[in-house]
């Protein structure tokens, strides 16, 4: 008989099917096709088992294969071991085996002995020349079967199929490893064996270079890699990326910015060309030089001003170069005794700037001299300028307190921001010379009284600040304060003091003094008040009744302070009561809408629980088994038989012994909340046991437990329509909650329960306990987020909207964000959002605009809906009502779910079943014309309901359209 092994080989046709995996993400550790000469792997038994055979491949290149075909003999155990393969830093290696396998049916007389699989093993080792390795030292990777075994057809024109199988193995303990192939009686040819590992290739992202990186040991592990800034760039924020297990880079965070003088072009920083500049490290490009400036070299950080143009220190590099102003125009002066009003017009040229200001120079010049050589000195500091002397923005100044009959020269300078840099001189000024008129002396000041007696005092004063000529005499006017100026006396004197006599004792007097020159009297001084005393003789060192004055002054002050305080407090009070009133008005709620009632508003928690939950007699509950642990104690399943009703399966949460008052209240709060809801997608409360211990909360039983674990258990087993059906149920429950103004705060797949019909129900309600019993929830700190946080409370970062993390703004819109995360969890079959990134990186990535990518095979429309839920602005996120409408549309038009981001077309409703009751009411509109009820039910896997529906009178799809949940 022709031995089957001779039939093994590769035909030209099969060669066409070989996938060419040329990808620079792969590093090949072994490829039997490229090994020169024979492989000479260790075979056991050495004879009659695996045998090395050289054949020609599809390109007529000789390759080495291993073949075995002892299909007629029982109890085969043929081992083939590769040479030592160094792992070269890899942590997970992939073994790609191409092989052909004879179909046992095609071999006559082999029943019972012929097999169609072989086993793949590995053994980690530091020894690259182990001569003998026990079979038991090898660890099994997998049993490999052919996808397509071949049947021998026409010998002259055979079409043989080549199988390609890939398995991955974690190799982390030794420097290398051996692979082994165990044959137990098949007819196989190993055509090629390729061993490789995956890397994330060197890449540049956000101007940071990330090196070629070996992927992690586990299929879900991410390797965190820090990037280094490309030449001529600097860190904006530490550049980081994660190398995923399949060699893809994920979640770029941070990055670099081109330094001044450089701009980003094609992932590198290129110098700004001549005529351009860039002043700062930024992601902007180079800018053209502003007017009147230039750059002569590449890489300019600033442009130089053209000759005659300047830049002030405070001018930004983006501003045009400018010039100083020309001189002010049309300076005119109007003299009024010892004052002068100066006015001028702005310069003709402002030099391209708007920061013009003026300053005034004041000179006293020699009388009568008009020549250039006249002697001028700066005016004294007693001259007053209004509104000022320098940095004037107005073009009018009043100069007062000049000397009478004096020549003054005033020079008005115009300046702007570049006057100093340009060294601008007199060209920017204009001057005028004036002579002041004769003027009376200024008022006398600093009046004092000494030597006070009951009838007299000595009055003293200083010369006026501006006598404006020779003082000829002083005039003192005084009167009793009580009589006002109705009668007064006048004394004239040449000296600066006078003895005032003939006064009444203990009487207050008012004194005024003025001076006279040739120009006449000046004005009287301000009133000076003084009292005589009862002493017959003056007291040495006597002052005014200073203590009294002090007391009265401070008394008035204290009085003023008290009244000011009373005034402020009374104002504050009225503002506070207004605020309170405002907030009370705000709290007024819209009547007529059913709103959930916070059980914590009840003083007595038992009152709340009995308002919203039914008390169940413990004897009607039969606990069967423990199904999990909650925060307060065990969760069990069991049966509940209430009189007059059929027995139902229930979940029973109990409160463990030794609880505090707070724990009791928190435990029961969940029931008080749940008891207010009545919706097919919200977990139903059956009742509570509060009259005996342990306290219990009884809910409907959800056979499939929590959604995340359920999906992980059934990875890849649902159709897209089934997944969307689950999401629709959750959205419907959430819409109901949001209509009741209930904010969940901890919406996540782990808090959704699934029943045997795949109906998803929102669970996990509560108030203070919300987030406290969730292992995902963490205490947030300022450092973690870089944002202010009110103290207290834990937050499940990955599921929570940024505004809720940053400042605890929990709203229905933040629930919508969490819903988007639940969508991602569902479509990725319970994958952990943001994989094993840490919370701080998640917060940072979200802040920088990163969003979770579409899971494998995720329809584009679903991912778009997730992205909408993750809008930074919460007002821009969809409402649950909009989400529900959108999902209904998708279910009705399954074609829209076909387009996915990946290669594999997603199965649609037409191709597969839909076993959930949630979607029973959703009839695909597109099919209404052509389909019968029976066909449609078949297409969604619910054909068992055909009779029920027919019996109920639903015979056409049109009639089904009117069917609702109820
Ligand atoms: O993922 P699971 O199986 O689903 O484990 C948790 C465990 O109890 C602790 O919460 C399960 N569980 C909670 N409520 C119910 C319920 N109503 N029906 C079925 N299982 C439930 C949950």
TrEMBL record:
User: Which positions are catalytic residues?
Assistant: 746
- According to the entry, every stretch annotated as the Protein kinase domain falls at 621-891
Could you tell me which Pfam families the record lists for this protein?
A: EphA2_TM, Ephrin_CRD, Ephrin_lbd, fn3, PK_Tyr_Ser-Thr, SAM_1
Q: List, alphabetically, the InterPro entries matched.
A: Eph_TM, Ephrin_rcpt_lig-bd_dom, Ephrin_rcpt_TKs, FN3_dom, FN3_sf, Galactose-bd-like_sf, Growth_fac_rcpt_cys_sf, Ig-like_fold
Q: Which BP terms does GO give this entry?
A: axon guidance
Disulfide linkages recorded for this protein, renumbered to the chain, are: 69-187, 104-114
Membrane topology, as annotated: Single-pass type I membrane protein
Q: Does the keyword Metal-binding apply?
A: no
* Intracellular or extracellular location(s): Cell membrane; Early endosome
Cellular-component GO terms for this entry: dendrite; early endosome; plasma membrane
Q: What EC identifiers does the entry list?
A: 2.7.10.1
The protein's GO terms of the molecular function aspect are: ATP binding; transmembrane-ephrin receptor activity
Segments forming domain Eph LBD:
26-205
What reaction is this protein's catalytic activity? L-tyrosyl-[protein] + ATP = O-phospho-L-tyrosyl-[protein] + ADP + H(+)
In this chain the Fibronectin type-III domain maps to 324-439, 443-535
Q: Which UniProt keywords apply?
A: ATP-binding, Cell membrane, Disulfide bond, Endosome, Glycoprotein, Kinase, Membrane, Nucleotide-binding, Phosphoprotein, Receptor, Repeat, Signal, Transferase, Transmembrane, Transmembrane helix, Tyrosine-protein kinase
Residues spanning the membrane: 547-570
SAM domain location, by residue? 932-966
Query: What positions does the entry give for ATP binding?
Result: 627-635, 653
The protein's name: receptor protein-tyrosine kinase
Q: Which organism is it from?
A: Scophthalmus maximus
């Amino acid at each position: 008989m022709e031995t089957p092994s001779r039939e093994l080989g590769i035909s030209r046709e099969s060669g066409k099917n070989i996938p060419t995996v040329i990808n620079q993400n792969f590093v090949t550790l072994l490829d039997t096709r490229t090994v020169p000469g024979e492989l000479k792997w260790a075979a056991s038994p050495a004879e009659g088992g695996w045998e090395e055979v050289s054949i020609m491949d599809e390109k007529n290149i000789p390759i080495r294969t291993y073949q075995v075909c002892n299909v007629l003999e029982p109890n085969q155990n043929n081992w083939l071991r590769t040479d030592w393969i160094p792992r070269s830093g890899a942590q997970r290696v992939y073994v790609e085996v191409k092989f052909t396998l004879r179909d046992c049916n095609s071999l006559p007389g082999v029943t019972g002995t012929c097999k169609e699989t072989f086993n793949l093993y590995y053994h980690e080792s530091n020894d690259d020349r182990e001569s003998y390795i026990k079979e038991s030292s090898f660890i099994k990777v997998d049993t490999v079967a052919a996808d397509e075994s071949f049947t021998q057809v026409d010998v002259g024109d055979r079409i043989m199929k080549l199988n390609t199988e890939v398995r991955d193995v974690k190799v982390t303990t030794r420097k290398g490893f051996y692979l082994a192939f165990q044959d137990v009686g098949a007819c196989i040819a190993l055509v090629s064996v390729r061993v490789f590992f995956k890397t994330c290739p060197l890449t540049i992202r956000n101007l940071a270079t990330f090196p070629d990186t070996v992927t992690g040991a586990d299929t879900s592990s991410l390797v965190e890699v820090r990037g280094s800034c490309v030449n001529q760039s600097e860190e904006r924020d530490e550049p980081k990326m994660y190398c995923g297990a399949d060699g893809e880079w994920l979640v770029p965070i941070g990055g670099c910015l081109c330094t001044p003088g450089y701009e980003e072009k094609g992932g590198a920083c290129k110098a700004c060309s001549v005529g351009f500049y860039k002043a700062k490290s930024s992601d902007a490009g180079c800018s053209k030089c502003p007017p009147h400036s230039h750059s002569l070299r590449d890489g300019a950080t600033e442009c130089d001003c053209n000759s005659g143009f300047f830049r002030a220190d405070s001018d930004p590099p983006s501003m045009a170069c400018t010039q100083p102003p020309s001189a002010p125009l049309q300076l005119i002066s109007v003299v009024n005794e010892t004052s002068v009003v100066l006015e001028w017009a702005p310069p003709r040229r402002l030099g391209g700037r708007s920061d013009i200001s003026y300053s005034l120079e004041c000179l006293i010049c020699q009388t009568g001299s008009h020549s250039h050589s006249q002697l001028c000195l700066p005016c004294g500091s007693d001259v007053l300028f209004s509104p000022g002397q320098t940095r004037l923005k107005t073009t009018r100044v009043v100069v007062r307190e000049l000397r009478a009959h004096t020549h003054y020269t005033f020079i008005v300078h115009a300046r702007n921001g570049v006057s100093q840099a340009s060294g601008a001189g007199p060209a920017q000024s204009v001057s005028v010379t004036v002579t002041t008129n004769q003027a009376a002396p200024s008022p006398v000041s600093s009046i004092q009284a000494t030597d006070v007696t009951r009838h007299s005092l000595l009055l003293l004063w200083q010369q006026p600040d501006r006598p404006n000529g020779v003082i000829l005499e002083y005039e003192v006017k005084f009167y009793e304060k009580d009589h006002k100026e109705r009668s007064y006396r006048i004394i004239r004197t040449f000296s600066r003091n006078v003895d005032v006599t003939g006064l009444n004792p203990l009487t207050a007097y008012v004194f005024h003094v003025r001076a006279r020159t040739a120009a006449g009297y000046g004005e009287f001084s301000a009133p000076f008040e003084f009292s005589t005393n009862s002493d017959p003789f003056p007291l040495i060192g006597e002052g005014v009744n200073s203590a009294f004055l002090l007391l009265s002054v401070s008394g008035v002050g204290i009085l003023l302070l008290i009244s000011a305080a009373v005034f402020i407090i009374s104002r504050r009070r009225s503002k506070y009561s207004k605020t309170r009133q405002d907030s009370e008005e705000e709290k007024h709620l819209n009547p007529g809408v059913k709103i959930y009632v916070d059980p914590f508003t009840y003083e007595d928690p038992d009152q709340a629980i009995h308002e919203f939950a039914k008390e169940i007699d413990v004897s009607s509950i039969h606990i069967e088994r423990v199904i999990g642990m909650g925060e307060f104690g065990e969760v069990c399943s069991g049966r509940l038989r209430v009189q007059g009703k059929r027995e139902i399966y229930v979940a029973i949460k109990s409160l463990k012994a030794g609880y505090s008052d707070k724990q009791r209240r928190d435990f029961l709060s969940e029931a008080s909340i749940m008891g207010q809801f009545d919706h097919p997608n919200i977990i139903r409360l059956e009742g509570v046991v509060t009259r005996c211990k342990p306290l219990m909360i009884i809910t409907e039983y959800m056979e499939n437990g929590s959604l995340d674990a359920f999906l992980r258990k059934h990875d890849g087993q649902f159709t897209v329509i089934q997944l969307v059906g689950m999401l629709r149920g959750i959205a419907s429950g959430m819409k109901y909650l949001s209509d009741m103004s209930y904010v969940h705060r901890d919406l996540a797949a782990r808090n959704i329960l699934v029943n045997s019909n795949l109906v998803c129900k929102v669970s996990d309600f509560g108030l203070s306990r919300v987030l406290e019993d969730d292992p995902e929830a963490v205490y947030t700190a300022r450092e973690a987020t870089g944002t202010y946080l009110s103290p207290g409370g834990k937050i499940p970062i990955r599921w929570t909207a940024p505004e809720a993390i940053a400042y605890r703004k929990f709203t229905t819109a933040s629930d919508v964000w969490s819903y988007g995360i639940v969508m991602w969890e569902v479509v990725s079959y319970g994958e952990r959002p943001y994989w094993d990134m840490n919370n701080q990186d998640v917060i940072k990535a979200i802040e920088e605009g990163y969003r979770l990518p579409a899971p494998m095979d995720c329809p584009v429309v679903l991912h778009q809906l997730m992205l909408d839920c993750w809008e930074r602005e919460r007002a821009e996120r969809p409402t649950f009502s909009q989400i529900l409408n959108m999902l209904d549309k998708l279910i009705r038009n399954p074609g829209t779910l076909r387009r996915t981001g990946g290669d594999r077309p997603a199965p649609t409703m037409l191709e597969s079943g839909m076993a959930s009751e949630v979607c029973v009411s959703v009839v695909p509109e597109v099919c209404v014309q052509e389909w019968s009820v029976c066909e449609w039910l078949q297409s969604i896997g619910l054909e068992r309901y055909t009779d029920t529906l027919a019996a109920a009178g639903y015979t056409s799809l049109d009639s089904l359209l009117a069917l609702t949940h109820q």
